[in-house]
């Protein structure tokens, strides 16, 4: 391929940054709008480098997120494994979608993630998130092009000379 070699440090650093962004304190008014950073970053890596990122990385990242965020143990892991499985299944199509269609696909995955989260909370008897939290996937959709371009730029560096 004509693409430059990617930098191997970008994957683990981007996952750590996504985990840290999930820990950032937000005012109560903005808390429901917090995008699922880990899902966005993981989606990028599953789409772009399926040979390096799969269900195992998704599960491990989810368990670490569960421990950091202090929710139901295994919830984040389940959510990320489901997201990764769907992305792996449709990766060949999604990868070549124009950005506008990728945004819709990522939005559908983020809404599906909210549904999985709601089901897990109902099953284990935890209180479900308020309706205002259903707005976060829309913000995730809006941030997808930025996340994609930023991670692509970090991964490959400067392309033109």
TrEMBL record:
Report membrane topology.
Multi-pass membrane protein
The organism of origin for this protein: Stenotrophomonas maltophilia (Pseudomonas maltophilia)
| Gene expressing this chain | mreD
The protein's location, in the record's own words, is: Cell inner membrane; Cell membrane
GO BP of this protein: regulation of cell shape
Q: Keyword set for this entry?
A: Cell inner membrane, Cell membrane, Cell shape, Membrane, Transmembrane, Transmembrane helix
Q: What is this protein called?
A: Rod shape-determining protein MreD
Q: Name one Pfam family in it.
A: MreD
Query: What GO cellular component term, any one, is given?
Result: plasma membrane
Extent of the signal sequence: none
> Which chain regions cross the lipid bilayer?
54-73, 131-151
């Amino acid at each position: 391929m004509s693409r430059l070699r990617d930098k191997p440090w970008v994957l683990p650093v981007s996952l750590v940054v996504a985990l840290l962004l999930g820990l950032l304190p937000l005012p109560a008014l903005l808390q429901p709008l917090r995008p699922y950073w880990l899902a966005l970053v993981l989606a990028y890596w599953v789409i772009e480098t399926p040979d390096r990122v799969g269900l195992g990385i998704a599960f491990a990242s989810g368990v670490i997120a569960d421990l950091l965020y202090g929710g139901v143990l295994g919830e984040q892991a389940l959510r990320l494994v489901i997201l990764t499985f769907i992305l792996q299944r449709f990766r060949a199509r999604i990868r070549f979608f124009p950005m506008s269609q990728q945004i819709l696909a990522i939005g559908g995955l983020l809404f599906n993630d909210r549904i999985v989260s709601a089901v897990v909370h109902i099953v284990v008897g935890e209180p479900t998130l308020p309706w205002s939290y259903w707005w976060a996937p829309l913000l995730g959709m809006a941030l997808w092009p930025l996340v994609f371009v930023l991670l692509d730029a970090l991964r490959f560096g400067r392309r033109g000379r």
